[in-house]
């Protein structure tokens, strides 16, 4: 989403609603990330398969190189919805708060993310707040993250721009704390 559409969206929302939070949820996903950017799958020079179980990632740690474009293939062999999210621990902590809001609103269930309109499961259409009690603009569309339903598979391709220590994590409430986090080392 462009910065402009974020501003337009928040402006129209401000007109009609009482603000409960000082930082709007929909403004928090940054448009850019200092450790890299999403890339099309056909630009990847390497694929890494990560298996998700109920409260585990296999392998538990990953190593990539700065400048590398990696296609992560996420296979959910558990019974619950899981997330694969690239970031540092502070980013994960913030995203856990957002996902808690989604869970409390009824949008996030143990096995999936509820479609907000037309019965569609398309994440891009989830931002319109059709569900009573849900904050308008609440959505799960961060480019550094993908949700994988139980028994399903999904992909995320990312170009790592610089060396550093990151984490891959599931930020569904309780999962990170139960062990769904691994070290992601980006070597020079
Ligand atoms: Cu999880």
Structural class: alpha+beta
CATH topology: Immunoglobulin-like
Main beta sheet, described?
Answer: 5 strands, mixed
Strand order of the largest sheet: 1-8-5-2-3
Mean pLDDT: 82
Q: How would you spell out the order of helices and strands?
A: HEEEEEEHEEEE
Oligomeric state of the chains in view: single chain
Figure out the total of helices.
Answer: 2
Distance between the termini: 31 Å
Q: Helical residue percent? A: 10-25%
Q: Based on Cα principal axes, name the global outline.
A: globular
Cα Rg: 17 Å
Corresponding CATH superfamily: Cupredoxins -  blue copper proteins
Structural domains: how many: 1
Q: What is the CATH level 1 assignment?
A: Mainly Beta
Just name the CATH architecture.
Sandwich
Based on the model shown, name its key terms.
Immunoglobulin-like; globular; five-stranded mixed sheet; binds copper (II) ion; alpha+beta; 188 residues; 10 strands
